[in-house]
Amino acid sequence: MLKLFFPPIYNDVAEPWQIGFQDSAAPGFDGIVQLHDSIFFYLILISVGVFWMLFVIIKNFSSTKSSIVYKYLNHGTMIELIWTITPALILIAIAFPSFKLLYALDEVIDPAVTIKVNGHQWFWSYEYSDMIDDNGETIDFDSYMLPDADLQLGEFRLLEVDNKLVVPSETHIRFIVTGTDVIHDWAVPSLGIKIDAVPGRLNQTSALIDREGFFYGQCSEICGVWHGFMPIVVRSVSLEDFFNWAESYYCAYS
After folding, report:
1. Which of 1, 115, 127, 203 has the fewest CB atoms within 10 Å, measured from its CB?
2. Is 154 left (phi over 0), alpha (psi -120 to 50) or beta?
3. pTM attached to this predicted model
4. DSSP SS3 for 53
């Protein structure tokens, strides 16, 4: 009865047989969902119209009901204008919000933190190049998937890592993504991020995470036999906790 009024929340990790989106944790992903819903509205209208015309044709022009058509009546100017102009207007209505969202997601606005993401076969490495200690050392570490034997109660199989990427919430973050061997893809659905890690090329994207939590992702480009075993875990914390984590990292490895 309690679950009926207070259903469990599965926020930032995929559910078995999931069809819908994960809960959003960034404004960019909100825009992606809104664009999806808008295009889906047009898709429903088009589908209803097409299936209605097919039904009418089958019903009224079957082999037993078809009437004799005048042999010179082979085209209609009005209907041809309608089925040419209407799709063009629909494409324009879809294109404008698509381009608007595309350029908004591509814009990196005054980032406060820059994180370098490097894809390897088959793990990820991260570097906080903005954070340098007195010895000139930066925060950098590798992130491997946890084997089943090391999982704790409540952790997710094939999604947990030994070193999580810790980032501050409500802060503009820039991710610079590349690869060392083959093409990988750094993807975190809840943050609306999916960007290729291409060897010899630097791709960048940004995120403004609006709440704290753990956000799970996986490599989304087939990169070899262990492609399915290089997950991503982003941990969003408050700005104060982020600096405390950075300080504890330097203390642990100094």
Report:
1. 1
2. left
3. 0.80
4. helix
